[in-house]
Amino acid sequence: MIKAKLFGFLSLVFALAFGQGALAQDSTNQVAVKSDWSVFADSDPKQCWGVSQPLKTVNTKDGKAVTVRRGDIRLFVTFTPGNGGAGVVSFAGGYTFDDKTKVVVDVEGKTFDMAVENDWAWASPEVDAVILTAMKKGALAIVTGLSNKGTSTQDTFSLKGFTAAMEEAEARCK
Asked: What are the DSSP calls for 101-135, one per residue?
């Protein structure tokens, strides 16, 4: 029952935050840029998020580099007033994930699993704070996933400006 409620809450957050989030870097509600991270805020419903696109993307199939067509690739941290100020970490891979696998975030050798649904991945609420702490201390986050077509992806994100962006987003959504 608790899992169902949590999933329902997360689904609502993702629908509200990320329906426009994939296009967030083209949005007019950008409120700040902190090096490699941008901060956005909406008032109805109130939500704020930091987002970045990858510095580098590697796609492989059967151990060989391949060229694939992907949509927007973004790493997000979203804040909503009803979430107690806690940031929710998510990833848009630009493709539909293999639903039998997990997406893995590696920050300076510390790895974290993310659940997947369609083309979104997110950490559990218990892990979000740990990932955020690691990201504030790290220089790079590497996100690895597997598409439903069997393509392995590895996206490298800079964490330059991450802490400042998270402070800005969190402060705007208190």
From this structure: S-EEEEETTEEEEEEEETTEEE--HHHHHHHHHHH
For 30, the 3-state DSSP assignment is strand
Residue 76 to residue 154: CA distance in whole angstroms: 16
Q: What is the pLDDT of residues 124-147, one digit of tens each?
A: 999 999 999 999 999 999 999 999
What is each CA distance from 154 to 61, 127, 169, 173, in whole angstroms?
A: 12, 21, 26, 31
CATH homologous superfamily, domain 2-172: Invasion associated locus B (IalB) protein (2.60.40.1880)
Task: Give the separation between CA 19 and CA 81, rounded to whole angstroms.
Answer: 18
Which phi and psi angles does 168 have, rounded to 5°? -65, -50
Domain parsing of the chain, residue ranges: 2-172
Where is average pLDDT lowest: 68-77, 81-90, 109-118, 163-172?
Answer: 81-90
Q: What is the pLDDT of residue 45?
A: 86
Q: What one-character DSSP code corresponds to residue 97? A: B
For the chain, report the end-to-end CA distance as a whole number of angstroms: 29
- Name the pTM for this structure: 0.84
Classified as helix, coil or strand, 70 is coil
pLDDT for 27 equals: 57
